[in-house]
Design brief:
alpha+beta; Beta Polymerase, domain 2; 5 helices; 47% helix
Length: 183
């Protein structure tokens, strides 16, 4: 994808767009899917984001993804093999041609993978910590202005913030588990 990084205000249609895409993905892939989740900033209520619906599908084994290619192509998702070298733990698909069509990213991973766990921790922390979500949105707007069309620079510049949120999410989860264990 080319063009400048675009970060927009929250769109209340995002959860509905995810649910619609989820339904199509489940119909296409059936029992191959163990779980499916809405991730990324569009999954965090009242938080602005790049207008891309990120969807994460969990499989028992990543090697099962080959069975998914054809059904996903039938519903418009195109496999992007060029991303395998940089992220071997996932398979990446894309659908939509902005600005005419809604843009979707589909990440297929093993359900037990760090990728799965990290993305859910990040999303869930931002959903329950509005200040963290607001800070992330403000950071993304500044970085979009700074990096323009340099998508790699934009993504790299967010890394330390994302890692700090994941660390906070781990700590929060660990404290909650300790509290439950001691009662």
């Amino acid at each position: 994808m080319s063009g400048p990084v675009e970060v927009v205000d929250y769109d209340p249609r995002w959860p509905k767009l995810y649910e619609e895409a989820k339904r199509h993905i489940l119909e296409a892939m059936g029992d191959k899917i163990v779980r499916i989740e809405h991730i990324g900033s569009t999954a965090v209520p009242n938080t602005g984001a790049k207008p891309v619906i990120d969807i994460m599908v969990g499989l028992n084994r990543l090697s099962d993804v080959g069975k998914c290619n054809e059904p996903l192509q039938r519903i418009g998702f195109e496999y992007q093999p060029e991303h395998e070298a940089s992220m071997p733990e996932r398979r990446f698909f894309r659908r939509g041609n902005p600005p005419k069509e809604q843009h979707y990213h589909l990440h297929i991973v093993e359900l037990t993978s760090d990728f799965w766990k990290r993305h859910l921790l990040f999303r869930d922390y931002l959903r329950t910590h509005p200040k963290g979500a607001e800070d992330y949105y403000e950071l993304k707007k500044r970085l979009a202005d700074k990096y323009g069309s340099d998508r790699e620079g934009y993504a790299e510049a967010k890394t330390s913030f994302v890692e700090s949120i994941v660390a906070k999410a781990h700590a929060t989860r660990d404290r909650q588990e300790l509290a439950r264990a001691s009662t």
